[in-house]
Write a structure and sequence with these properties.
Radius of gyration of chain A: 23 Å
Strand content of chain B: 15-25%
Number of domains of chain A: 1
Distance between the termini of chain A: 32 Å
Number of strands of chain B: 20
Strand order of the largest sheet of chain B: 6-7-8-3-9-10
Structural class of chain A: mainly alpha
Strand content of chain A: under 5%
Largest interface: A-B, 18 and 28 residues
Radius of gyration of chain B: 26 Å
CATH architecture of the domain at 2-126 and 205-283 in chain B: 3-Layer(aba) Sandwich
Number of strands of chain A: 0
Number of helices of chain B: 19
CATH topology of the domain at 2-126 and 205-283 in chain B: Rossmann fold
Shape of chain B: globular
Number of helices of chain A: 15
Largest sheet of chain B: 6 strands, mixed
CATH architecture of chain A: Orthogonal Bundle
Oligomer: heterodimer
Shape of chain A: globular
Distance between the termini of chain B: 70 Å
Order of helices and strands of chain A: HHHHHHHHHHHHHHH
Structural class of chain B: alpha/beta
CATH class of chain A: Mainly Alpha
CATH topology of chain A: ABC transporter involved in vitamin B12 uptake, BtuC
């Protein structure tokens, strides 16, 4: 009897199975990952320990996790903002590359040597380059009704190959490798945690998270959100769907561009091919799992960053390919999505049972 | 247990059966006129019954869609099923086709008592239904569409040529001209319908249900369809023809069963009835007394539509040079059967649909080409019929829904941010003023009942202090309490000087609330009349699209003058 009372004293949300489904799903992904590792004769315990230690075992590891989190948060937010308006922007990767180009152009030019101003301009231009590049699919959609999924996906290749062309041609620094010249020191993001690579971009990421949180409390945010939720109702209520679409892509592309600019100014200090290991694509998963909520996106981004950093260590010490990290990410996505279905099923069962109860009572 | 429940159902049906019958009788008595209901058995049509439905009862939630319905189809007849929208015609036929299971009643097909769980069961009994909208796959050929799903087509290879031969045979036998090799997507709507009919005939059915088959057809296609139906019944098929158009009933059917409000009003032989009688049976008399009709022919016009034409979603001209005048301080009811351009009319006024020709003037200003926002700022409020689709955002809270059209007003937002406190106060005020039943202003509106959703929508629209208020089916699917409340609000608006345009499929509602009544048919206004001397039979005829009746009525009026 006393057990029952204690059980009912626990808050309702804590008693609900549904609260735990996402966590259980993520854990299951690790279990399946363990099976895969085990099948290749690798000591699973050791592998996961090393993974964890790679991410949290040293101050350098923690720094690296946070550095990756910056990119993932910014691209994740970029995709989230677009999704919130039902604009399926799968082009964050390309927008990131264009942003990186913007940052590089400031960094290697004369203004890039002016302390203070340089950083400001790097951020401004990387945002602007990302935005402008995102406006291409936005305008195609608004003017000609071109499906943004296809145009954004294809424009990724345009951006990545365009950067390649620049690095092999006009933007190539003297020497053998297709690198751009190094940016001026004044354009580099200062390191905030000595002994690590963690740079001031972390504040940009935090600011962006807070900014997106408050975006939905602004006039334009409300308009964007409403258009996404039901564009019929929004249009009828006098909202401007064209404007909302364009603004959404500007914000979305700009955030992705910022991620690119920070990769140049905070991490690499010059532009290279493959400067992003697909952050813009992982961002889609992050936006889905984080349910487009800025805090959710930040948490999932951090989790994915741990996975990526840890798997790099696994590669270095156990030569487990980094593809395993991608496998794990995909597994997490699959299991969490299945978990969602499970929750939907639970909800349906609940309403069905209530209906039956009502019917029974009615008799 | 099983037997018990069966017994229970039989008991209930008997109970309800006699009760419902009495209801009907008293209803007719009350009207005190010679609305004769012809008995099933005294009818002249020959042939033994192939389908008998007895005491069918089906409820969806609180709505009783079919209440103790009896229906009989005889061999070799075309039996029209006539009624307004929501009378229960399609529901009844869906039961016969196995799509719904009734809560009570029995179905006897060709002498055997049956219970159909799915359309497959119906098909094996020889029953097929041709739906209002084509269910064919456009990229495939006629033959492929016809044989899809059949046993003979399930092997590794399709025997197309045999199928084609059979299709040609069928099309010659019934006069359904069709090329079996044609791609369905290239065919006109009328031809697609022929494919649907052949598809049914190919499966050797002998009972065919047609759900409003002429709604998408041109007059020529309609003629062709009717002659096909005649030849089909000559070959021994039996056809049920769902419609709300009177002339079709007169032209094609042998007998007609009239449904109203989920109940059978009567079954009559077509040769022994007239359009006027059918209209009266279909529409019925208003049960509720008129609340308060005002006729204010001198007050200024606040909304004027001049020869307005507009396309529907399928890009067909659906409003045809429609003209309409709405005055200050009046409720103008637009009566009509669904799908005669009412939705298009409302959307054209609200700026949601492009006007192809003509002009709309609101309060002295042309609004024909303005955006929805501009039109609303000039004084329009609009309560759309699809409150879940166009009216509200379901996952939003009451507060968010209430500011959906005014989030940019200075009162509710600063330069950048929304003013949360103001919004909350507005929502609280609206909830108490409109008696919206809700656990709080921050819960998503999808947890509210239909009546309360409509109140949220009304609260938002009326808070604009409009000059013109357009409401479309304001009380559809809403309980009586909320309906009454909404009617009161409309009258309050009228008394405050607002011009109210009430488009409704519910004729009783229009007769109760409106001051003037306009009848709409196929994108045109057939006639406008004062509600206090409106004649229901006349309205029924207009709704069924009888222009000849219009002329005779007009002549009559002129003579009286």
């Amino acid at each position: 009897m006393s057990l029952v009372t204690t059980f009912s004293q626990i808050p309702k949300k804590m008693r609900d199975v549904r609260t735990y489904v996402p966590f259980a799903s993520a854990s299951l992904a690790f279990v399946v990952g363990a099976v895969i590792l085990d099948s290749t004769d690798i000591d699973v315990g050791r592998a996961y320990t090393i993974m964890f230690r790679g991410a949290f075992g040293s101050i350098f590891g923690i720094g690296d996790v946070l550095v990756k989190t910056i990119s993932l948060v910014l691209t994740g937010l970029a995709v989230s903002v677009a999704f919130k308006c039902r604009q399926w922007n799968i082009g964050a990767e390309g927008q990131l590359y264009m942003g990186a180009l913007g940052g590089t152009l400031v960094g290697i030019s004369l203004v890039g040597a002016v302390p203070g101003l340089a950083i400001f301009l790097v951020l401004l231009l990387s945002f602007a380059f990302g935005s402008l590049f995102a406006l291409v699919p936005a305008i195609l959609k608004v003017k000609f009704g071109v499906n943004e999924v296809i145009s954004t996906v294809l424009l990724n290749f345009v951006a990545i190959l365009f950067i390649s062309y620049l690095l092999h041609g006009p933007l190539k620094a003297p020497g053998f490798n297709p690198y751009s010249p190094e940016i001026h020191e004044a354009s580099e993001m200062p390191i905030v945690l000595p002994g690590t690579r963690l740079h001031a971009g972390i504040f940009v990421a935090v600011a962006a998270t807070v900014g997106v949180y408050y975006l939905w409390k602004t006039k334009i945010g409300f308009e964007i959100k409403s258009v996404g939720a039901n564009n019929n109702a929004a249009r009828y209520a006098g909202m401007n769907i064209t404007k909302s679409t364009l603004v959404t892509f500007v914000i979305s592309g700009g955030l992705a561009g910022l991620a690119g600019g920070l990769l140049v100014s905070g991490v690499q200090h010059f532009l290279i091919e493959g400067i992003s290991p697909g952050y813009g694509f992982i961002a889609v998963i992050i936006a889905l799992l984080g349910r487009q909520h800025p805090i959710g996106v930040a948490v999932v981004a951090f989790f994915f960053s741990v996975l990526m950093t840890g798997s790099e260590t696994m590669y270095r010490s156990l030569s487990i390919p980094t593809a395993f990290a991608m496998t794990l990410q995909a597994l997490v996505l699959v299991f969490v999505l299945v978990g969602q279905l499970f929750i939907i099923w639970l909800n349906k069962r609940q309403t069905r049972r209530l209906d039956q109860k009502e019917k029974w009572l009615a008799k | 247990m099983f037997l018990q429940s069966k017994f229970f159902i039989a008991f209930i049906s008997r109970l309800f059966g006699s009760g419902a019958k009495k209801d009907l009788e008293t209803q007719i008595d009350r009207k005190g006129e010679s609305l004769e209901i012809k008995n099933l058995s005294s009818s002249i049509a020959t042939g033994e019954p192939v389908v008998t439905m007895k005491g069918i009862i089906i409820r969806f939630g609180e709505v009783t869609a079919n209440n103790n319905v009896n229906f009989e189809l005889r061999k070799g007849e075309i039996h029209a099923l006539l009624g307004e929208n929501g009378a229960g015609k399609t529901t009844l036929m869906s039961i016969l086709y196995g799509l719904y299971q009734p809560q009570a009643g029995e179905i006897i097909v060709k002498g055997h008592k049956t219970s159909m769980k799915s359309p497959n069961d119906a098909m094996t009994l020889g029953i097929a239904m041709v739906h209002q909208h084509s269910l064919l796959t456009p990229p495939h050929s006629v033959t492929e569409n016809i044989i899809v799903g059949l046993k003979e087509s399930r092997g590794l290879f399709l025997n197309i040529s045999t199928a084609e031969k059979k299709i040609i045979q069928l099309s010659e036998k019934y006069g359904l001209k069709i090329d079996p090799k044609a791609i369905v997507g290239d065919l006109a709507v009328g031809e697609q319908q022929r494919v649907e009919i052949i598809k049914a005939l190919y499966r050797d059915v002998d009972i065919l249900i047609l759900d409003e088959p002429t709604s998408m057809l041109t007059p020529q296609e309609e003629k062709a369809l009717f002659s096909t139906l005649q030849s089909m019944v000559r070959q021994g098929l039996s056809i049920i023809f769902i419609t709300h158009k009177l002339h079709e009933v007169m032209e094609v059917s042998n007998r007609v069963t009239i449904l109203r409000g989920g109940m059978v009003v009567g079954t009559v032989n077509t040769s022994e009835t007239s359009e006027t009688e059918l209209a009266r049976m279909m529409v019925g008399r208003p049960v509720i007394e008129n609340i308060a009709h005002k006729v204010s022919s001198n007050s200024p016009v606040v909304l004027h539509l001049k020869n307005v034409s507009a396309l529907n979603n399928a890009k067909v001209m659906f409003l045809k040079e429609l003209s309409l005048e709405l005055r200050k301080s009046e409720i103008l009811g637009i009566a009509g059967v669904d799908g005669n351009g009412q939705a298009e009319l409302a959307e054209v006024i609200a700026g949601l649909r492009k006007v192809q020709k003509g002009e709309i003037i609101m309060d002295g200003k042309p609004i024909t080409t303005l955006s929805p926002r501009k039109i609303r700022e000039l004084g329009l409020a609009y309560v759309p019929q699809d409150r879940l689709e166009t009216g509200l955002i379901l996952e939003y809270s009451i507060a968010e829904n209430l500011i959906l059209d005014r989030w940019y007003f200075e009162k509710y937002s600063g330069r950048v941010f929304l003013k949360n406190d103001e919004i909350k106060n507005f929502a609280k005020k609206a909830v108490s003023e409109f008696e919206i039943k809700t656990p709080g202003i921050n819960v998503p509106v999808n947890s509210l009942s239909g009546g309360n959703l409509q109140k949220v929508l009304m609260a938002r629209e009326l808070a604009r202090n409009p000059k013109v208020l357009v409401v479309h089916n304001p009380t559809r699917g809403i309980d009586i309490g909320a309906t009454h409340y909404i009617h009161e609000q409309l009258i309050k608006q009228r008394d405050a000087g607002v011009g109210v345009l009430m488009i409704s499929l519910d004729l009783d509602e229009i007769l109760t609330v409106a001051d003037r009544i306009a009848v709409m048919y196929e994108g045109k206004i057939m006639a406008v009349m004062d509600a206090k001397d409106a004649d229901v039979d006349y309205i029924g005829l207009l709704m069924g699209g009888k222009p000849s009746a219009v002329y005779s009525k007009k002549n009559e009026e002129e003579q009286n003058k």
